[in-house]
Amino acid sequence: MLSNLGSLLRYRGLIQSLVARELKARYRGSVLGFVWSFINPLLLLSIYSFVFSTILRQDDERTKPYAVFIFCGLLPWTWFLASLTEATSSLIAGGNLIKKVLFPAEVLPIVSVLANMVHFLLGLLILAGFMIGFRHFPNPAALPWFPIVVLVQLVFTLGLALALSALTVHFRDIRDLLTNLLTLWFFATPIIYPYFLPAVSRYLWLFRLNPFYHLAVSYQEILFFDRFGHARSLMLLGALSVAVFLAGYWLFDRLRDSFAEAV
Amino acid sequence: MTSAIELAHVSKVYRKYSGRQFATLKSALLKRSLLRDLRPNEVFLALKDVSFSVAKGSTVGVIGANGSGKSTALKLVAGITKPTSGTVRVDGRISALIELGAGFHPEISGRENVFINGIMLGLSKREIQERFDEIVDFAELREFIDAPVKTYSSGMYMRLGFAVAINVDPDVLLVDEVLAVGDEGFTHKCLDKFGEFRRRGKTILLVTHSLNLIERFCDEAVWIDAGEKQAEGDPKRVIGAYLTSVEATEEQLLAAETARAVQEASEQAAAGSVAEAAEAPADPTGNMFQATEGRWGSREAEILRVAFLDKDQQPSFVFHTGDAMSIRLTVRAVHPLDDFVFGIGLFNADGVCCYGTNTYIEEMNPQRLAGDADVTFAIDSLDLVEGTYKLDVAIHKRDGYPYDYHRLLYTFRVKSRTQDVGIYRPSHRWTFAGDVTFGGRQK
Fold first, then answer.
1. Can you tell me the ipTM of this complex?
2. N or C: which end of chain A has fewer CB within 10 A?
3. Residues of chain A found within 8 Å of residue B115, distances taken between Cβ atoms
4. Where are the domains of chain B?
5. Mutation to test the B interface, candidates A27, A98, A102, most B Cβ within 10 Å
């Protein structure tokens, strides 16, 4: 397993060009092309802001401007959601490669995660635009934590993506199961509502079991609220993520030989 | 000589999970049958204890019927799948032409796909840059290289895939039936490229159904059938053994087909009334394109059995051009007859009558047919071109009233070394006068 893990480094050229291909191919043939990378999160954001600042009006002063607040949690979640959804079917979609070419299969789910990470990073530009527009700026002292949160999320997502993609080859049901599970997960995470709601505090122990809770809170504290007090939990989650990644890779490696036959 | 590829006692088992077809994760969990369902309930042995080696710098062809395990063997050598038991050892860089352009993305241009495909096959970006022109020229796609691959015809797609794979500059090249991709010109170019590979001392393992190609190109051949190695060595000898076995299989098929046709026709004839059955549907040598197999007649005399016999009087269904062949009818007359004619007709697959005759045409005067009798029509030299032929046999009165008429019920096959055409192959030879010379066997 370790030697396989080491060869991942050798594939970085391949991963790089596949991510580039993924990004190029995605919007090929559409009129707006790459602009969709910006429009998609923007549209999603306007829907949520409209619902929660006009229809289900939130009056908590601390979450204003609401559009910026919700964006801080929504962007990383979209990355997480799209990565897992795409990675889950990546091995089946790339079946031709696995069956007919000598091809390192783990590259496929990794590419799904990384391609969506690029979309996430592009989305940050829109977030920056919003911050300027609403004159609501993050605390520069907390900003160095930002890349660390991203890294933790990356490792965590990679681990899940590897495990799910390998299992889906044998149990296609996971794809459908996952879609529903992710919807539940989204509402169980303080993304469209702040984590300091009384209702959340009451079940805090339960929330704290949710890995994405810590990610969402970290993002919001770093980018929206002035104070970052979640460092300890984040570091714990970081350690957990490494474990998840290793477990995911181990599972993937165990099932590797069955892919060419089962895809 | 050292070997570049070595398979030692390799077996490959494919598992069939027939129970899993409808068992989903949910039901597996609910019924707690997850572990049971994960266990295969049927196994399929794709390869059984196969060993062979390919010497460095040689070209070896693998032949065998569909589903015999050839491609599995190639995939094992390529490392795409792992053997269930035994070892596979390959020395040097491999390029597998198994599925051409397998990694192409339809939406992006040929140029970008060449780069990504090259990287997948193990080239660095710089190496591809250096070989890019060569690849594009080889694929003959210079004007389309910047168009998305989805706009390519399937031939263009394959050509580009082939060009990239062949330019990986492998030590060991694995080829699975990919020469059928391009037009005549491109196929020639591919063969030239293989020739160049051989001259440069590269090893080639080739899976193909084109025996011709194996005979021309390969130093050695391996024949795999039903997952087991049947023969290995000199291509001519291996191909000979393979063809003999194919003929045996064909014999069985033709025998089964004939038995089925006779059975059906007899059942149909039995179902119709006697008066109807005695009625010949149409002029027998009329429009053969509309003729269907069948049997009719009054059965006052009956053809019980028809057999094709080879020169040793053994029943057979496959003959070679020029062989001796006899057609033997076993007949029985219910009561003694004094008006009878035996007839036969040979038809090719297009329904063209190649030959037809009967005892009346040949001025034999019938006097008595009673009880059981054998009628043999002996052909000294079967001068037909390669193909499948069907036979009409009949007993009827001189005026055509049928006793028993079998229309196209019997099938046999003629094989030929020569790919000549037509419906009749007169015994012939070529002679030349003046300054005309031919070399050895044509390449």
1. 0.74
2. N
3. 17
4. 3-244, 258-281+292-415
5. A102
